Amino acid sequence: GFDFICLFWCFLFLKTGHICYALALFLFQGVLSNISSITDLGGFDPVWLFLVVGGVMFILGFAGCIGALRENTFLLKFFSVFLGIIFFLELTAGVLAFVFKDWIKDQLYFFINNNIRAYRDDIDLQNLIDFTQEYWQCCGAFGADDWNLNIYFNCTDSNASRERCGVPFSCCTKDPAEDVINTQCGYDARQKPEVDQQIVIYTKGCVPQFEKWLQDNLTIVAGIFIGIALLQIFGICLAQNLVSDIEAVRASW
What we know:
This protein is mainly alpha-helical.
């Protein structure tokens, strides 16, 4: 049964590679196509990350499937060694993320603020920030006043926009009785006293809300990462056991 289980496991890697390629193609066709302009990555487009991950997963899955079908120990060893390298890289990334959590927090703050500046410039980035603010019930990176960074929403006297001193509709608190979104609900919201603002819009920033979400779901997030790690270790053990069985049979010839 090791060959069948290993074959099934490698097939999962193939499908993961296909999913990553499909997602990368979807992003390249327009969704978040300008994301590199608002990240501090030296012009690197994160979409390439999906292509690389998809390519690696596809190659590993292909090597494992062919190795299991043809009983090719070289391909099976290739599969297990590189799966071990991926596991080590993931472990290293987790440790670095914990050590440099303040840097990650700064990058998230930088990303959100740059997105705020470009809010009206790209519809995909606009949809991203609206989804983020609605999902985490937040407004701006650290508060609603971060929308002063946007030329349409800032409170300067020279701003002739009707959205002056306002916020996007995604910052507004939701009324369950409303079936249609009121896209003008954020108009003049930041001109009101702070007590009144809390009734109309979310006043907490998205960075603190994201941190709170991680703390509230720490068990689930940790469980997912531990589960992925155990599955990878399981895949390495399967490949090594299959290699041992093949070599044992060949030695008896």
